Amino acid sequence: MNIESMIPYDIKDPDIIHRLPISLEEISGIAYFSKNKLACIEDEHAIVYIYDLNKNKIISKYNFGKDGDYEDIAIVDKFIYVLQSNGTIIKIKNIDKKRKIKTTKINTQ
Q1: Distance (Å, rounded) from C-alpha 54 to C-alpha 52?
Q2: Are 86 and 104 in contact (CB under 8 A)?
Q3: What is the DSSP letter of 53?
Q4: How confident is the model at residue 14, as a pLDDT?
Q5: Rounded CA gap, 107 and 58, in Å?
């Protein structure tokens, strides 16, 4: 059995294609945020973008610090984690709340 027969989709023939806005041209990470919504991180700016798949647009932006070199984003429980190229992880809470977001840096070195 080859690996391609085990994959539940055909990457060469997608069901749908989403054209992201120019501000996400250098997107480096995507994570499931909530129903029909993705959290995205762009390579150079300290902004978490919330993209609505139904509306085909960015519906929220959350600035979490200084511009830098961001590589990936993950969501665990109610926290967002952003990985910097130097290995530092930024933990973000209070996204999508009326309260100010809070960040904590986690040094992995």
Answers
A1: 6
A2: no
A3: T
A4: 85
A5: 30
Q: Give the pLDDT band (50/70/90) at residue 2.
A: low
End-to-end, the C-alpha distance of the chain in Å comes to 41
Residue 55 has which token pair? 């509306």
Is the sign of the CA dihedral 51, 55, 60, 66 positive or negative? positive
Show the domains of the chain with their CATH numbers.
Answer: 3-106 (2.40.10.480)
pLDDT of residue 4: 64
Residue 24 token pair: 């996400």
What residue type is assigned to position 8 of the chain?
Answer: P
Does this model's pTM top 0.90? My answer is no
Nearest-angstrom CA–CA distance, 42 and 62: 12
Tens-place pLDDT, residues 40-75: 999 899 999 999 999 999 999 999 999 999 999 999
Q: Give the chain's mean pLDDT.
A: 88
